[in-house]
Design a protein that fits this description.
Elongation Factor Tu (Ef-tu), domain 3, six-stranded parallel beta sheet, 27% helix, elongated
């Protein structure tokens, strides 16, 4: 299930709290939407469908970071910016992006219900396991009385497995980018600023863009065929993700070599989309072996991206 038409460039209003949302009788879709995977897309598509059919505004209520990040060591699939970009594809009138924290987790369920009630929602759409408020005490029974209609979606499956954000993270951690993408419904995106690196790639004919990501952003490990959205267009490339085997004392990184690109990206924000796994990382005894492998990687990446249309 895909987002809205590619030609629709309208951006939703974005507010930071539910109290700021000023809509009447909206169709409201609520959830964490980490990764905006196939299950999330089913809810969001239904939101767009109902809103269009009844002529009502639509609103997505979501949260960042996920509770598992705040209370544990989990990673997130979508940064706040990435999530907003993915949600915009479903053309909501507004997005509420609540900052989740330990303090916010103490909010009584009645506060959340009252904030929704004042909107007089036409329809509320959630996953059937949606819980909210302090100690997750809020249930669907609390939401049903405040809307004309409540729709609760069950989990869906893809390729024989349940579509969940946790499963996507597991596939990414194992380098199974094809399975992760299948559950997401699109190539996994990583948005970040290009920062100055050691510039070793330039000396061997494979200059790379070093991309800064959030500390808890989920990243697959290995070498991948990717596309990169830059301020001047989309380019194919290959990405090396994780610890540098040839330079083990340095921190993990996301480095991308763009094909057929000669511009300067320092300080610019780009989005890398992971399309295919090429190989695991390995350490090389010398630069000649590294250069030969990189040449092989480029050929493999170009082949993997042959059917990808750059725009």
């Amino acid at each position: 299930m895909s987002p809205g038409p590619a030609g629709d460039t309208s951006a939703p209003q974005v507010v930071e709290t539910l109290a700021e949302l000023d809509l009447r009788h909206p169709v409201v879709c609520i959830g964490n939407f980490d990764g905006v995977h196939l299950g999330h897309r089913a809810l969001l598509a239904r939101m767009a469908e109902v809103a269009a059919s009844v002529g009502a505004p639509s609103a997505v209520v979501t949260f960042f970071p996920p509770a598992k990040v705040v209370f544990g060591t989990a990673t997130y699939l979508s940064s706040a910016e990435e999530k907003l970009e993915l949600l915009a594809g479903f053309r909501p009138t507004a997005v509420v992006l609540e900052r989740f924290s330990r303090e916010y987790a103490q909010t009584d369920k009645a506060v959340f219900v009252d904030l929704l009630r004042r909107l007089a929602p036409h329809t509320i759409i959630v996953g059937e396991d949606f819980r909210f408020g302090h100690q997750r005490q809020g249930t669907l029974n609390d939401l049903s009385p405040i809307a004309q209609r409540l729709e609760a979606f069950g989990l869906i499956t893809s390729g024989g497995e349940v579509v969940k954000s946790s499963r996507v993270r597991e596939h990414l951690a194992a380098g199974r980018i094809a399975r992760a993408n299948a559950l997401l419904g699109a190539p996994y995106p990583v948005r970040g600023e290009v920062i100055t690196g050691a510039r070793r790639g330039r000396t061997i004919g494979f200059p790379t863009a070093n991309i800064a990501t959030g500390e808890r952003k989920a990243l697959p490990g290995g070498v991948f065929a990717v596309t990169v959205d830059t301020p001047t267009g989309r380019f194919g490339g290959m990405a090396n993700v994780g610890p540098r085997p040839s330079f083990p004392d340095e921190p993990p990184s996301l480095e991308v070599h763009l094909f057929d690109y000669a511009g300067d990206l320092y300080g610019r924000v780009v989005t890398t989309r992971f399309h295919a796994f090429l190989r695991t990382q390995r350490r090389f005894s010398g630069l000649e072996g590294l250069k030969a492998q990189l040449a092989d990687d480029e050929r493999a990446a170009r082949t993997a991206l042959a059917d990808v249309i750059y725009s």
